[in-house]
Amino acid sequence: MDAKNGPPTSNKLPKLESRPLSSSDVGFHQAVHPSPEAYQKALRELTAANLRLRQLDKAKDEFISVASHELRNPMAIIKGNISMILSGDAGDVNHETRDILTDVLVAVERQIRLVNELLDISRIEAGVINFNLNPAISIDQVAELLVTSLKGVAAEQNLEIKLENPAKPLPAVQADHDKVSQVLINLVTNAMKFTKKGSITISFKEKSEHVITCVTDTGIGIPEGQKEMLFKKFSKPSSESVGTLSAGSGLGLYISKKYIERQGGDIWLEESKPGVGSTFCFSLPMRGSEKALEVVSEIKSLQPIKEIHYKS
C-alpha cells in the first residue's frame, strides 16, 4: 500500500522466479526429513546415552547408600562418647571444655541427620522403603507426644508449642507411625528453626475421607518467589531475605513429600507471608477408606513381599 496514493489498482500477485534446487536446499530437506538409516542411527545413539545416564544415576545412588552407611557408625560412636563425657562419666568437665564439646555434639548430630536423610533418599530412589502400615493411628496422639517432647526445647527459645484439639474426636488414619512422626517432627522443628518469637500450633481437620494436619508458626515466612523450591530434592530458598531459611540440606521436605504421597496423602504449603508466618499441611487417608485400601494394594505391588508389613 502507498501511504499517499492509497491501495494499488491491481490485485495481481508478483510472479515468482523458479530455480533449480541447490545443495543447501537438499541439506535442509535431509535435516528435516532424515533417511531411515540416519533415523535408526540417531535412535541407537540416544538409547545408548540414556542407558549410560541410568547407569551413572544408579552408581550415584549406590555410592550415597554405601558412603552413608560407612559414615553413620563412626559418627554414632563420636556422639555417644561426647555424651558420656558431658554427663560426667569420664570425670569433671570445666565450663570452657563443656561449651566446646556441646558445639561438637551439635555438629555431629547435624551430620547424623544429614546421613540419615541421604540413606532415606537412596531407599526412596530405589523404591525399597519399608512401610509398616497401621490401619488405626490417632494422628492427634502422635502430635501430642511430639509437643510434650519438644516443649522444653521450645521454652529455651522463648517459643510456645501447642496443640489445637479438634472439636470432636478425629477418625483414625492408616499410616506408618514412624514415618508420620518423622514428617511431623520435620515440620515442627523447621517452624522452630525459623521462628524467633511467638508460637507453633498443630491443628487438625477432616476433608474427603482424609485427616489433615497443619503446623502453623509465627516465623519469618517465605517470599512468593521461593515457594516453588520447597519440596524439591536438594533445593532450598537462598535469598538473603529469608535469613536462616538457607540453612539445612534441602532434603527434609522432599523426603516428607515422598513419605506422605506413598501413604495416599499429600503435603503442601497452605499459606505463608514474610514477617507473619507459615502454615504447612499434610493429609492421610482415614481407616477403611477407598484410598487406604488402594494404598495397601499399591505398596504390595511396588515393593518386594519381604519389605511389606501391614499391622492389623
Please characterize this protein's 3D structure.
- The chain has 312 residues and is of the alpha/beta class.
- The chain has 2 domains: 36-126, Helix Hairpins (Orthogonal Bundle), CATH 1.10.287.130; 131-310, Histidine kinase-like ATPase, C-terminal domain (Heat Shock Protein 90, 2-Layer Sandwich).
- 49% of the residues lie in helices and 17% in strands.
- The chain contains 7 helices and 8 strands; from the N terminus they run αααβαββαββαββαβ.
- The protein has helices at residues 23-32, 36-86, 95-126, 139-156, 177-193, 252-262, 290-302, and strands spanning 131-137, 159-163, 173-176, 198-207, 210-217, 266-273, 277-285, 308-310.
- The strands form 2 sheets. It has a 5-stranded mixed sheet. It has a 3-stranded mixed sheet with strand order 3-1-8.
- The termini are far apart.
- 22% of the residues are buried.
- Residues 238-246 and 304-312 have low confidence and may be disordered.
- Residues 66-288 form the Histidine kinase domain.
- It is an enzyme of class 2 (transferase).
- This is histidine kinase.
- InterPro entries: HATPase_C_sf, HATPase_dom, His_kinase_dom, HisK_dim/P_dom, HisK_dim/P_sf, Sensor_HK_Regulatory, Sig_transdc_His_kin-like_C.
